[in-house]
């Protein structure tokens, strides 16, 4: 029983409502999409969770399981006890959100949000909206592009065998893979806790002896991928290859494979993956920025430069494009180009001391700091600053 509740909490369940709802207009969805994006930008996971329809979440979990009224009460108490904390933790890794568009799905129009983590990792959340009894928009489920399915689908698939264990006959029968997963869940849970505690090697060894069918379960293979990513490239690429063989054509595969293609130095393949994701989400400037960075790695500076400039035209707040342009100047040993980008950045962000904070704050500029062009530029900046300070000193 405790494992059943634990799974509900670690899976991050958000389930579709079974109740009839007042139709939602596109304008309402778009406004709600901006609201959700702002929650990520402000790091306000509490508000994000507050606009989640937890009753809809429970509706699908218990639908068709034949639980008694008393069991339903216990289910609700156990499932909801740590739900808010779990959702906040799951979404809290992403601190930058941007509403992109509405996207058709088999459950109506999804609200597509691009999210970025602090280290630049990208994911896309397709929120499925409904209305509360008060007529306020709430989100009932969320399609996670990296997972290739909704939170509700992940949860439903993994919870069913555990419900059967909790109450014999609740499902009637289990498929062989479901039965294997139910038996292995204590070890999966243990590995998850080990990973959260930073014990990556131990977590890897906890999962290795499990049956192949369990290790290739979508939930478990994602857990293994996250663990392997923190250990070494060989393990990471091995799990990626297993994913590709097990789920060919999977919606999440292109997004997940960007890193692995880059590790293999398969730049053409990496660009194809990015293009496929871009088509799937309906276009996103951030993906163009990723392609620019891949082009830098492949030595195609002209395309990288063109893409980075297009990013700034399409989404001026994607400041990473300036980093890309600076990298092009540094990699191509073109100090004049690097200086031009630094000046452009300094004009856009006058409170940033580009010399102290960027040129001297990043060792990637070490060779650049030795060039005659940089030294002349730095001297000119110093002279200009002194000339500006002199009149101010006299007036004092």
In helices, the fraction of residues equals: 55-70%
Q: Mean pLDDT, rounded to whole units?
A: 86
Helix-and-strand structural type: alpha+beta
Strand order of the largest sheet: 1-2-3-4-5
CATH class annotation of the domain at 2-173: Alpha Beta
Number of helices: 20
- Order of helical and strand elements: HHHHHHEEEEEHHHHHHHHHHHHHH
Shape: globular
Q: From the coordinates shown, what is the CATH architecture of the domain at 2-173?
A: Roll
Strand content: 5-15%
Looking at CATH, which topology of the domain at 2-173 would you report? Nuclear Transport Factor 2, Chain: A
Q: Give the end-to-end Cα distance, rounded to a whole number of Å.
A: 76 Å
Outline the low-pLDDT stretches.
1-19
Number of strands: 5
Structural account:
It is built from 20 helices and 5 strands. The chain has 396 residues and is of the alpha+beta class. Among the domains are: 172 residues, Nuclear Transport Factor 2, Chain: A (Roll), CATH 3.10.450; 77 residues. It has a 5-stranded antiparallel sheet with strand order 1-2-3-4-5. A hairpin with a 5-residue loop joins strand 3 and strand 4. The radius of gyration is 25 Å and the shape is globular. The termini are far apart. The relative contact order is 0.07. The N terminus is likely disordered.
């Amino acid at each position: 029983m405790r494992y059943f509740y634990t799974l509900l909490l670690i899976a991050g369940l958000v389930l579709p409502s079974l109740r009839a709802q007042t139709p939602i207009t596109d304008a309402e969805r778009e406004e709600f999409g901006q609201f959700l994006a702002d929650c990520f930008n402000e790091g306000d996971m509490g508000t994000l969770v507050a606009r989640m329809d937890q009753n809809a979440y429970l509706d699908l979990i218990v639908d068709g399981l034949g639980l008694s009224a008393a069991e339903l009460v216990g289910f609700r108490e156990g499932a909801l006890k740590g739900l808010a904390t779990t959702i906040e933790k799951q979404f809290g890794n992403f601190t930058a959100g941007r509403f992109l568009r509405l996207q058709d799905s088999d459950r109506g129009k999804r609200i597509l949000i691009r999210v970025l983590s602090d280290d630049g990792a990208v994911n896309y959340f397709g929120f499925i909206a409904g209305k509360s009894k008060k007529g306020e928009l709430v989100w009932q489920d969320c399609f996670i592009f990296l997972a290739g399915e909704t939170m509700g689908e992940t949860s439903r698939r993994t919870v069913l065998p555990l419900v059967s264990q909790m109450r014999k006959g609740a499902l009637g029968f289990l498929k062989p893979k479901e039965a294997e997963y139910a038996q292995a869940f204590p070890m999966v849970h243990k590995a998850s806790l080990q990973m959260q505690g930073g014990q990556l090697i131990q977590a890897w060894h906890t999962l290795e002896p499990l049956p192949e069918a369990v290790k290739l379960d979508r939930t478990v293979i994602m857990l293994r991928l996250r663990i392997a990513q923190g250990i070494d490239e060989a393990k990471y690429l091995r799990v990626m290859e297993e994913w590709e063989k097990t789920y060919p054509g999977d919606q999440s595969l292109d997004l997940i494979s960007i890193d692995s293609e880059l590790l293999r130095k398969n730049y053409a393949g990496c660009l194809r993956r990015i293009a496929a994701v871009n088509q799937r989400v309906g276009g996103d400037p951030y993906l163009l920025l990723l392609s620019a960075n891949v082009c830098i790695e492949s030595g195609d500076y002209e395309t990288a430069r063109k893409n980075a400039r297009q990013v700034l035209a399409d989404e001026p707040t994607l400041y990473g494009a300036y980093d890309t342009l600076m990298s092009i100047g540094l990699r191509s040993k073109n100090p004049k180009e690097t200086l031009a980008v630094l000046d452009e950045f300094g004009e856009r962000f006058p409170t940033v001391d580009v010399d102290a904070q960027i040129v001297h704050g990043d060792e990637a500029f070490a060779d650049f700091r030795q060039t005659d062009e940089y030294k002349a530029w730095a001297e000119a900046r110093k002279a200009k600053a002194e000339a500006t300070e002199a009149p101010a000193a006299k007036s004092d």
